[in-house]
Design a protein that fits this description.
This protein is mostly helical and 258 residues long. It is built from ten helices and no strands. Helix content is 80%, strand content 0%. Helix 1 runs antiparallel to helix 7 and helix 7 packs antiparallel against helix 9. InterPro entries: DmsC (IPR007059).
């Protein structure tokens, strides 16, 4: 629980990237209207700003963020900071050319760039934690869970903002992957840090229970027409809370190899 700012920063950032991706792809496939895409982009931008603000609490002083950029190219943390900044900048530019200086071509280009740098930002996050000195983190499961948050939480948000087909598909794939790999992940941790991993059972259980429930709730809401914004909003919130719980467990696994 000692890294809560980073818990919120990574989960919300990955969720925003997932929403940008799924909403834009849905629009290009004709599954989403321009108005719905606009609302999705606004929501994703707000979520990413919240992620940055909360993540800034970990840095301590805002100006230290610029010090983090000094190692771009050689430091995974500096790369993450740079890509998060570019991601937000293109997200802001997308809204600028959509809502204020209305220019369809520039808005489209900025939206594409936002999606690309959102994915690059998500890619950069596990690079920070795949370090040999922390055996519990030095595994493919670290990278896997970061990308699954993009699919699961991003999918839940996409469903909320109208991209229901791709959002539901992303949520389903991400949830199945989490369930399919959890036993192997726990087995790996049983070898690298059995005591500390056992302490995370409550956080993981909450995550899995919520995802399991949502696997039944979403079909009931979407395929029976009960897809009100309020109900889908509660579902999205539950999924994000589940991913936050799983991420708390991840950060609690920090343990220097002796």
């Amino acid at each position: 629980m000692h890294e809560l700012p980073l818990v919120f920063f990574t989960v919300l950032g990955q969720s925003a990237a997932g929403l940008y991706l799924l909403a834009y792809a849905s629009r290009r496939l004709g599954m989403l209207s321009e108005n719905q895409l606009r609302h999705a982009n606004i929501a994703a931008f707000v979520i990413m700003i919240i992620a940055l603000v909360i993540g800034g609490l970990h840095v301590g002083q805002p100006l230290r963020f610029f010090n983090m950029l000094l190692g771009v190219g050689r430091s995974p943390m500096s790369n993450e900071a740079l890509l998060s900044g570019i991601f937000v900048a293109f997200g802001a530019a997308t809204l600028l050319f959509t809502l204020f200086i209305k220019n369809k071509v520039l808005s489209e280009l900025c939206n594409v760039a936002t999606v690309i740098f959102g994915l690059a930002f998500v890619w950069s996050i596990p690079q920070v934690y795949n370090i040999a000195t922390v055996a519990n983190w030095f595994t493919v499961f670290t990278t896997l869970q970061m990308w699954m948050t993009l699919l699961v939480a991003g999918g839940a948000l996409a469903i909320l903002f109208g991209a229901q087909r791709l959002g539901a598909m992303a949520f389903l794939i991400g949830s199945i992957m989490i369930f399919a790999t959890r036993a192997a992940y726990v087995s790996f941790l049983g070898e690298t840090g059995p005591e500390i991993s056992a302490e995370q059972a409550g956080f993981w259980s909450f995550q899995l229970v919520v995802l399991a429930v949502m696997l039944f709730v979403y079909p009931a809401l979407l395929y029976r027409g009960r897809n009100s914004f309020a109900l889908l909003g509660l579902c999205a919130l539950a999924v994000i809370l589940a991913e936050l719980s799983g991420r708390i467990a991840f950060y609690n696994l920090w343990q220097i190899t002796m």
